[in-house]
Design brief:
There is one protein chain. This protein is α+β, with helices and mostly antiparallel strands. It folds into 3 domains: 122 residues, Immunoglobulin-like (Sandwich), CATH 2.60.40; 284 residues, Rossmann fold, CATH 3.40.50.1820; 245 residues, Galactose-binding domain-like (Jelly Rolls). 18% of the residues lie in helices and 25% in strands. It is built from 16 helices and 36 strands. A hairpin with a 5-residue loop joins β4 and β5. α10 packs across α11.
Length: 824
């Protein structure tokens, strides 16, 4: 998620909601002046509420207690409510319709407070960044509902808001709300020639969301020299918390889409850039904002067909899926690249805290979402953007998300509202999704949800060995362009020849590899007016495309993002995948039969592993064809290694699997890593994938698991510490992977403390007060540990193996045998 590359059914609405829609619709109609969100809410907050001001802390409507109209303003939104204009430090208490106290927040120095998370029992917290973290370990997010009240009970008489409604993500405004927004106009983004004098800031606008928050957007049109001087143009949106709406720079997705003839509206999420509101990682308000943006943009006269698509890799790709699950009526298609699956599990893979990339990414989000956290917003403020300046005041209400998510040691119920494996089942538009099995930033867990797009009318998925930015590699982008041409532009895909020529050098510069370029047009035999015929041919192709050995093509330099061979399927894992099981045996062997004789091997905890990646002295080089690798091995006695016999025939692993290990430890809390690698006939070792598990998370979510996939609840109630000295079965999943083993190669399974075998993920492992406890893995007999992985047939694999190193995302080193320590 690194920046340099990272209609819904209307639900019943209350009278209060309809009143709010009317207020916002009128505000949006006024094109002559800017109405601040605070002013909009204040216009609807003039009534006096009679509530009980007694010591019991309830706020039951209809009692005799006198309450003054509030001196502060409340703006309710989607699972949030924001207070402005209160006294600094004022204790603002949120009550539900039953008069129960839910949470008291102390207003910040600006008199602001933001309600988003509700503890299990009432608490008093300092609001905002640097304040108290929301205690949601056993709590929840603020729920949709009517009759909420915010009250300051510290004054006499107490000051209270009128009752208000918190919205749900599917509570959408009437069409008039979108029809009456001010028009958006853009600037031209030249590709091959200048277009004369134009102020880049002329394309910058604000769009009003359903709760009155305004998001900053940047509108750009494609080069008229290539695509005509007037619209309408096929149009896409790029939406993230980076800097997509920055006028003087473009995110990669925006740049590429413009070059290919699409108009682009680039949008900053609430609480980022110049956008208003409070930032919150992947919260439902962001989902709903995306719905609103789509509906406003689609109504612009320069949008072809009044339907828009979405583009982006990593952060903006993830955002597409959250928006698509709201199903805006005018959303045509989405193209998410290099995405995550479940945000909590991204932060806690296997229940172990990711103190590497994910932690750093959250820290960066916290820093950039702070007031003045991005230099371009400061520049806009200095040149007179008063709206941007006003929006920066609320940034003090952003919480410390790195610390907040670090505190969420267990999966809490409402985390499911941000879990993409669950939410993508709601998507009802075409989806083009790509990802790498060895993605060093976001991982490969995304591939386990490819069969979850139950309601999407069309899906096209491309998966491959590789790295995070490879979603923008030429062969992936060729199919990306095809998809957008069919479902957003509604035309037969034909790449502009000038763009094709220019793109070759652009690809070569970006990936530091000569000779790259788009694939030839695959639908050249179809006439321009035979869109239906071309679409039918496209949709008849299998939806799953798997690319193998990217980086190992003999006609390109090692590490070039070009695959050697590929396969296509109707489902993933492939329908012909069959399970192969190998058992851990004495002497470090993997055998196809379960050993009759029981035994055990042991390894020590490695305290240095968690902070060690496989990068060398140059560190993480995002786009270098070959990484600088220092893939360190574990010290003697710190890992277990089990190796298969040489494969007698070509064998292709494709999909997820698991290692079922019987573990016996001296301690009650153990973090375990299992890794798969290939040992070549020449004696080199290539890493394939790794999986992790905190041993207390043994509870399997049976409804979400199958023969290959093992999913867990990660709930605190299901956590069960080990009993020292008593064996326990750990079913440790590894994410989907695709790899071909040629005759003479061997499969290796290693077991150790998490670390060393990943690019950017690091792990917060136990320190055991400086001790190094020993863990035993049982094998054979009644407690036979084993490895289960999927094998597929029917793939033509080139006879010659790729060079070491060459495969993208997969470090390679000389293989060093390990003698396991036999447990006493």
């Amino acid at each position: 998620m690194r920046r340099s590359v990272g209609g819904a059914a209307r639900h019943g609405r209350t009278t209060a909601l309809l009143a709010l829609w009317a207020v916002w619709g009128l505000a949006a109609c006024d094109e002559t002046k800017t109405v601040s969100p605070r002013q909009e809410v204040a216009a609807d907050a003039e009534t006096v509420l009679q509530v009980d001001g007694g010591a019991g802390g309830s706020a039951d409507a209809g009692t005799d207690g006198a309450v003054a109209a509030e001196a502060f303003h409340v703006r309710p939104g989607v699972e949030i409510a924001t207070v402005t204009g209160a006294r600094p430090g004022a204790p603002l208490t949120l009550y539900n319709a039953a008069g129960e106290r839910l949470l008291t927040l102390l207003a910040d120095a600006e008199g602001q407070a933001h309600f988003a998370y509700v503890p299990e029992t009432h608490a008093v917290l300092r609001s905002g960044f640097g304040g108290d973290l929301p205690p949601v370990r056993n709590g929840q997010t603020l729920k949709k509902g009517d009759g909420y009240v915010i009250r300051d009970d510290s004054v006499d008489p107490p000051e209270a808001s009128p009752p208000f409604s918190v919205l749900g993500v599917h509570d959408v405004p009437p069409d008039s709300f979108y029809d009456n927004q001010p028009p958006l106009t853009g600037i031209i983004a030249p590709v091959i020639s200048p277009v004369g004098d134009q102020d880049v800031n002329d394309g910058f606008h604000y769009i009003t969301m359903r709760d009155g928050v305004q998001l900053g957007v940047m509108v750009r049109y494609p080069d008229p020299a290539l695509y005509g001087r007037t619209g309408p143009w096929p149009t896409v949106i790029e939406y993230s918390g980076y800097a997509p709406s920055r006028p003087d720079q473009m995110e990669p997705g925006t740049n590429i889409a413009l070059s290919l003839g699409f108009a682009v509206v680039a949008v900053n999420m609430r609480g980022t850039g110049c956008s208003g509101g409070v930032f919150d990682v992947f919260n439902p308000a962001q989902h709903a904002d995306g719905y609103d943006v789509v509906e406003v943009v689609a109504r612009q006269p320069w949008v072809l067909g009044n339907r828009v698509g979405m583009v982006g890799l990593s952060y903006s790709g993830i955002a597409e899926l959250f928006v698509a699950r709201t199903n805006p009526p005018h959303l045509a298609a989405v193209t998410p690249l290099s995405v995550i699956a479940d945000p909590w599990q991204e932060q806690w893979p296997g229940g172990i805290y990711n103190q590497g990339f994910t932690r750093a990414w959250l820290e960066q989000r916290d820093a950039e979402a702070a007031a003045g956290g991005q230099d371009w917003t400061h520049a806009r403020v200095m040149t007179g953007d008063t709206i941007c300046a006003e929006h920066q005041k609320l940034r003090s209400q952003n919480i410390d998300f790195q610390a907040f998510l670090h505190a969420l040691e267990f999966y809490f119920t409402d985390a499911g509202d941000r879990s993409l494996p669950r939410l993508v089942r709601e998507i009802q538009v075409p989806v083009y999704l790509t990802g790498a099995f060895q993605d060093e930033q976001t991982g490969a867990q995304f591939a386990n949800m490819l069969d979850h797009f139950d309601r999407a009318p069309t899906t096209k998925f491309t998966v491959f060995n590789g790295r995070h930015p490879d979603g923008y590699s030429p062969l992936v982008l060729t199919r990306w362009y095809e998809f957008l041409s069919f479902y957003v532009a509604h035309r037969v895909p034909r790449l502009n020849q000038a763009v094709r020529t220019l793109a070759g050098q652009a690809f070569s510069d970006a990936f530091e590899v000569e000779g790259l370029g788009f694939e030839p047009d695959r639908f050249a035999d179809f006439a321009d007016d035979d869109y239906a015929g071309a679409l039918a041919a496209y949709e008849a192709e299998p939806p799953i495309r798997v690319l193998f050995e990217s980086g190992g093509h003999p006609d390109y330099m090692p590490g070039a993002p070009i695959q050697r061979f590929e396969a296509s399927y109707d489902t993933f894992p492939p329908p012909n995948a069959r399970a192969r099981t190998l058992y851990l045996d004495a002497g470090g062997h993997l055998t196809p039969q379960s050993p009759a004789e029981a035994g055990a091997d042991q390894y020590r905890h490695d305290p240095a592993a968690g902070a060690t990646t496989f990068f060398g002295p140059r560190g993480y080089e995002l786009t270098a064809p070959l990484w600088d690798i220092n893939w360190t091995d574990y010290a003697e006695g710190d890992q277990l290694s089990y190796v298969s016999d040489p494969f007698e025939e070509t064998t292709v692993i494709l999909g997820p699997g698991h290692a079922d290990l019987w573990l016996n430890s001296e301690v009650d809390d153990v973090h375990v890593q299992v890794s798969l690698s290939e040992i070549s006939a020449e004696g080199n070792e290539t890493w394939l994938t790794s999986g992790w598990l905190r041993a207390g998370h043994r509870k399997v979510d049976q409804a979400a698991s199958d023969a290959f996939r093992i999913e867990r609840t990660f709930a605190e109630a299901d956590f069960e510490p080990l009993t020292p000295g008593e064996p326990a079965l750990l079913e440790i999943p590894f994410p989907p992977v695709g790899h071909a083993f040629r005759p003479g190669t061997r499969l290796r399974l290693t077991i150790a403390t998490p670390g060393r075998n990943h690019g950017t993920w690091e792990f917060e492992n136990p320190d055991y007060d400086g001790l190094r406890p020993t863990h035993s893995i049982l094998r054979g007999g009644a407690m036979a540990s084993r490895l289960v992985f999927p094998v597929v047939d029917g793939i033509e694999v080139p006879a010659d193996p790729p060079a070491c190193p060459s495969l993208r995302g997969q470090p390679c080193r000389p293989y060093t045998p390990v003698d396991n320590t036999v447990a006493p």
